[in-house]
Specification:
This protein is an alpha+beta fold. It has a domain of 271 residues: 3-Layer(aba) Sandwich (Rossmann fold), CATH 3.40.50.1820. 16% of the residues lie in helices and 32% in strands. A hairpin with a 2-residue loop joins strand 6 and strand 7.
């Protein structure tokens, strides 16, 4: 007996790993995480110091010697400076954090570039304070519930400045002498009440929220001296129906560069504004028949800026001088999702989806010859790129759908010949036990739409799939313009539960996802929700044609725009999509904000047919509302982005048509559930899919997992 065992062990020892039987994850591993033995903690590149790479793992910093190809741990960083003073090396005009509150209730305290003053808003007026003397200067005096100085109106916060701005709408000049700010007048903007159920009597959050076709806030652009004095206003007419983008100071710090856009968002101008007299000069104009995106991801130099524009139908990098005298296109090709990284005397460095629409690569273009080099390599997707000062070393995270993240250092030859570049793996997240487990990995497939477009889709097949039986399918979608979900990058570990429990997982995009460039996205212009649902139906038809897919067990889920599209899939597209969980969706575009909605739809007054065609509430007649076709709706009542009003109006129509459906309301929940509400939503999602896709009760191990988390 012992000889037999020894012989068997010897045979296993000489077999290649792929020939040995791999282990299956336990349910506990799938729910709680596989552990560092399978996938290790990621590493993030930070910067190059003295030619060597500094990177972060957890809270620890490491330095990688580029020549010796070895890493060592660095000492812990020194704490910030004394209270009230910024730490050494504090970046200019940065928000204040981790320090005493010099002024009770101040909002968005932000250091001047020389760190001598802090600007902030209080009760919708703009102030600044001297850090040393604590002397306060009040710069504006008319702030109230409707007049906001240096504090953004909601639609600017959400759609233009972005949520990371925290509503801040003021900007220090580079010499710390001037503060530019936006003044918002919300007088004509309708108030939308959001009910808060807490307490005995509840309360209302009254938000000035312009829905499609409503008046927008009037905006003035002002300049104030840090020492105080009168406000000087820029030469713009606040009564015009217009938008202003996030401004920036010119390279010499003498002029404020202000982006302007018409209400229809098809005309764009960049103005150079003199803070001494408010006079403006136009330095760049752009018109497109559909819509125009703001200038973002800008690189600043002393004489001009490097920007990305899509006027050719694909994105290209351009150089624009501050006076507008030079506007030069530097790149060619089918670039999308371009991100400008760095410019030096010879090259502009950037990332873009160019080799494939599902992956990001790193490039550089010669500023004189306009010759392009691909710095990255292979069929990987690259992110978190850091470039050394001399441009000879590039660090990034590299991965694809079947390859876990690696931190790599790419050394570029001085000769410029990319075939001579040297690649070193600094850190690999693939753990020592990774190859011993059965891990379901994604596959990118290409699907055809009925009008001949080719779109990528991602699929993860169940482990141990038997092609002689039929499997349910769980589809993930979003569907909003230029917001794709299909990527060739590592996220397989989040998909292992369903892969181990007999469910095919699919991710679909539509033509508006950016895979066809601007011309593809433009096809949904003034008609949101029509072509997109057709593309999703065509995408699922690809999988329905497979003999091992159960056509009666097709589920779909999405949130926000994905909630909108999920509802359309399960109602109008119920011949193909049988079950769905739709969260926080827009079900009538007249109920969403001006800037986002009108970019793609124009106003309801200008495009009544488009709004009518896209109204989900009027497109649910095909929905059955029974065990063969069920929709689950979720929404947070405190959602200030997509109002709960959307779901209430859809529910009203479902009830009017006597349709059964499931509904989960999250009191005071925002646009994306947090804390206990998030845990509750996840558990209920599991229950829904087990009930409708697998015709079974929820496994006890899932209930126990969530019960443990509830006690923590």
């Amino acid at each position: 007996m012992k000889r037999t065992i020894i012989l068997a062990l010897c045979i296993m020892a000489v077999l290649p790993l792929g020939a040995q039987q791999k282990k299956r994850f336990t349910d506990e591993q799938l729910l709680s995480g596989s552990g560092q033995e399978i996938i290790k903690m990621n590493a993030l590149p930070l910067e190059y110091q003295g030619g060597n790479l500094v990177y972060l793992r957890g809270r620890d910093r490491y330095i990688y010697d580029v020549k010796e190809c070895v890493s060592r741990k660095l000492p812990a960083m020194k704490p910030a400076g004394p209270a009230g003073m910024p730490p050494a090396g504090f970046a200019p005009a940065m928000p204040v954090g981790g320090m005493e509150e010099m002024v009770k209730g101040w909002v968005n305290p932000t250091y001047s570039p020389d760190s001598t003053r802090i600007a902030y808003t209080l009760d919708n007026d703009l102030y600044s304070i001297d850090v040393r003397t604590r002397e306060v200067v009040r710069h504006t005096y008319d702030g109230n519930e409707l007049i906001l100085n240096g504090y953004a109106s909601w639609v600017y916060y959400e759609e233009i400045f972005g949520r990371p701005s925290r509503y801040r709408a003021f900007w220090w000049s580079p010499d710390s002498k001037v503060i530019a700010f936006y003044r918002f007048d919300n007088t004509k903007v309708p108030m939308f009440p959001i009910y808060n159920s807490r307490g005995q009597h509840g309360s209302l959050n009254q938000t000035r929220y312009p829905k499609a076709g409503d008046p927008n806030p009037e905006v003035k652009i002002g300049f104030v001296s840090a020492k105080g004095g009168e406000t000087l206003w820029a030469d713009f007419d606040p009564k015009l129906d217009q938008y202003f983008g996030t401004p920036f100071w010119s390279g010499d710090g003498k002029r404020l560069m202000v982006s302007w856009m018409s209400r229809s968002q098809d005309d764009f101008e960049l103005f150079s504004v003199n803070p001494l007299d408010g006079q403006k000069v136009s330095v760049y104009k752009e018109h497109q028949d559909s819509w125009i995106d703001w200038m973002e991801k800008i690189l600043f130099t002393e004489k001009g800026i490097y920007i990305v524009r899509d006027i050719s139908g694909w994105q290209q990098a351009y150089y624009l001088t501050y006076d507008g005298s030079v506007f030069d296109c530097l790149t060619t090709g089918h670039n999308w999702s371009m991100d400008l990284l760095k410019v030096d005397r010879k090259y502009l460095y950037y990332t873009a989806k160019c080799e494939a629409t599902t992956r990001f690569d790193i490039y550089r273009v010669n500023l004189k010859t306009k010759e392009k080099d691909r710095i990255s390599y292979g069929d990987y997707s690259f992110s978190n790129v850091v470039i050394s000062d001399d441009g000879l070393n590039v660090a990034a995270l590299a991965c694809n759908g079947v390859t876990p993240y690696r931190l790599v250092n790419i050394t570029l030859p001085k000769s410029g010949k990319m075939d001579k570049r040297k690649v070193e793996v600094v850190y690999n997240t693939k753990g020592p036990e990774f190859d011993k487990y059965e891990i379901a990995l994604p596959e990118i497939v290409q699907v055809k739409t009925r009008d001949g477009l080719t779109l990528p889709a991602s699929v993860i097949w169940p482990i141990g799939m038997d092609k002689n039986r039929k499997y349910p399918v769980k589809v993930n979608i979003y569907g909003g313009p230029d917001n794709p979900q299909v990527y060739d990058r590592w996220n397989a570990m989040q998909k292992q539960w369903w892969a181990n429990h007999g469910v095919i997982q699919v991710t679909l995009d539509n033509r508006a996802g950016g895979h066809q460039g601007k011309r593809g996205i433009e096809q949904v212009y003034r008609n949101l929700g029509v072509l997109e649902i057709r593309d999703f139906i065509d995408g699922i038809k690809y999988f329905l044609a497979l003999p091992y897919v159960d056509p009666d067990k097709i589920g779909v889920e999405g949130f926000s725009f994905g909630g909108t599209m999920t509802t359309l899939c399960v109602t109008e597209g119920s011949d193909y999509f049988k079950y769905g969980i739709a969260g926080g969706g827009v079900y009538d575009w007249a109920l969403y904000d001006t800037h986002y909605t009108e970019r793609y739809m124009d106003t309801p007054q200008d495009n009544p047919d488009g709004y009518a065609a896209g109204r989900v509430i009027d497109r649910i007649s095909n929905y059955k509302g029974d065990k063969t076709n069920m929709l689950r709706l979720t929404h947070g009542t405190g959602d200030d982005n997509v109002h709960f009003q959307n779901t209430l109006q859809l529910v009203d129509e479902l009830e009017r048509q006597h349709k059964d459906f499931e509904l989960m309301i999250y009191p005071q929940g925002m646009h994306g559930y947090r804390g206990d509400q998030s845990m509750h939503a996840q558990l209920q999602d599991y229950k829904f899919w087990y009930r409708y896709l697998l015709d079974s009760d929820l496994p006890e191990v899932i209930s126990e997992h969530f019960a443990v988390h509830e006690k923590r």
